[in-house]
Every structure is written in structure tokens, then in C-alpha cells.
Specification:
Pdz3 Domain; 2 domains
């Protein structure tokens, strides 16, 4: 038999062990997940997330779980299902739309960093997921950015030349107009056939055409964001890179070099 004193010491040790585990769980619950490894085929890489990006929320709800919890939260049912994930990059919060787990590897952030991000998230507006659309940002070496929605629209199915003009895709636009002019001179039925073919081609391939045209002009995919409007998407880009510029800017001119240096110094 164990003495009462020994039993009391064992009980105390068990209580200490429980308290230590509870403290660890509490500390972990106050932290967030940070990307520390990107797989080449992961969704995180496809969305142009970076090592050091912090997962803040899923569908507007603060996320304090572990890596397995994140996988479970982003495992969606249905081919069209999407989740809205809020990301923190430095001092900037932005959203991305994902159709499944992000992939990659994660680590827990420091409690102090998690607290700062949580405070910033309190004033960050997250709307219903239906109000967001995915935008892709293509950027070149001079920080000139092309921002376009990755959601197909109906315009190129009806007026391909107008859609090309709207997106300033000059070379294909001139080629299409020349094909229309040539075909209508040859025979009206040929014009109708070419018009229908261009409607189908540009309608079905519109997002790929936008990407290809940007690549042709030496732009590469820099960022994927979920935003409520083109203006908001540009504003997010400007917060991440104050010197990035846009061909159709809704957010004014970029910051001068000295302002960016001051921002980097303050960070």
C-alpha cells in the first residue's frame, strides 16, 4: 500500500501535469498558422501565397486550429464549393478563394504576432462569400500590373471585338476585325461562320487569353486575391507594393521611391 503522503504527492504531480498541458493548449489556441513551406503543386503556390503568410480566418471566422483542423475546414463538398480564407502578409490583410485545402506546411506563430493580427482583424470587413470574385494580378519587372477577374463573363460570347477592346488586347482585336472585314466582302455566310467561331473561342478561353496576353508582354502571375470590385483588388495590391502601377488605375499613382523606403524602414 502507498502511504497517504505518497498518494498526495502523486495527485499533486498529476495536477501539475494537467495544468502544464492546459497552459500549452491555451498558448497554442492564441496563435495562428503561418506558411513555412510551399509545394510546387499546392493550391497555396497556385494562389501565389508566400512563406511567412499567416492564415487568419476561414469564411470570416477567426481560425486558431492546427494544420489538420485547417485541412478539415477547407475540405469542401461539391464541385463549385469555395471557401474564403483571410491571409495576413506583413501588415496587410487580404482574402483568397480556394476550392480545397491550401497544401504546404505550417508552423504556429508567436503569440504576440497573433495578437497583433487578431486586433487588426477586428476592424477588417468580411462580407458574404457570394460578394467576392477572384482576381489575378500579372506584374512585370517595372511593377506595371494587369488586374483581371478570373470569373468568365458573357461579353466575349456576344461581342468578341468589344471585349478585346475593353481589355486592350490590341493585336488579336485587329486580327479579328480584319477577319470580319475580309469575310463579309467574300460572302455573308462566311462572315456569320467566322463570327460564331470567334464568339465561341474568346468566350470559352477568355481567362486563358488574358493570361497569355499578359505573358506575351512579359508579365508573370504575382498575386491572386478575392475582392468585391476591381478597385478593391487594386487597393490590396497597392498596400502590398506601394510602387506597383496599373494601366487602368482606380487608386491613383504609385508611391515615390522615398515613400516606399520609409515604409520598409517602419516595418
Amino acid at each position: 500500500m502507498q502511504s497517504p503522503e505518497h498518494e498526495g504527492n502523486q495527485t499533486t504531480d498529476d495536477m501539475r501535469s494537467v495544468n502544464v498541458e492546459a497552459s500549452k493548449t491555451s498558448a497554442r489556441a492564441a496563435t495562428l498558422l503561418r506558411l513555412n513551406g510551399l509545394g510546387s503543386r499546392s493550391r497555396a503556390n497556385g494562389l501565389r501565397l508566400k512563406n511567412g503568410d499567416v492564415v487568419v480566418a476561414v469564411n470570416g471566422q477567426m481560425f486558431n486550429g492546427n494544420e489538420n483542423d485547417l485541412i478539415e475546414a477547407l475540405t469542401l463538398e461539391g464541385a463549385d464549393a469555395r471557401a474564403l480564407v483571410t491571409i495576413s502578409r506583413g501588415a496587410v490583410l487580404f482574402d483568397v478563394l480556394t476550392a480545397g485545402p491550401l497544401g504546404g506546411s505550417y508552423e504556429f506563430t508567436e503569440a504576440e504576432l497573433a495578437n497583433d493580427i487578431s486586433q487588426a482583424f477586428e476592424t477588417y470587413q468580411v462580407d458574404a462569400i457570394e460578394r467576392y470574385e477572384p482576381f489575378e494580378v500579372m506584374r512585370n519587372a517595372t511593377r506595371d500590373c494587369l488586374v483581371f477577374s478570373a470569373t468568365p463573363n458573357q461579353l466575349p460570347y456576344v461581342f468578341p471585338a468589344v471585349w478585346l477592346l475593353q481589355n486592350r488586347i490590341w493585336e488579336p482585336m485587329f486580327a479579328v476585325i480584319a477577319a470580319y472585314a475580309f469575310s463579309i466582302v467574300v460572302h455573308p455566310l462566311l462572315f456569320v461562320l467566322i463570327y460564331v467561331l470567334t464568339c465561341v473561342y474568346f468566350g470559352r478561353g477568355q481567362v486563358g487569353i488574358l493570361r497569355s496576353y499578359a505573358l506575351f508582354h512579359e508579365h508573370t502571375l504575382w498575386l491572386c486575391v478575392a475582392a468585391r470590385s476591381l478597385e478593391q483588388a487594386q487597393a490590396i495590391c497597392r498596400h502590398i507594393d506601394p510602387r506597383c502601377d496599373f494601366r487602368f488605375s482606380h487608386v491613383g499613382p504609385p508611391a515615390p521611391p522615398e515613400t516606399e523606403d520609409e515604409n520598409e524602414a517602419s516595418e
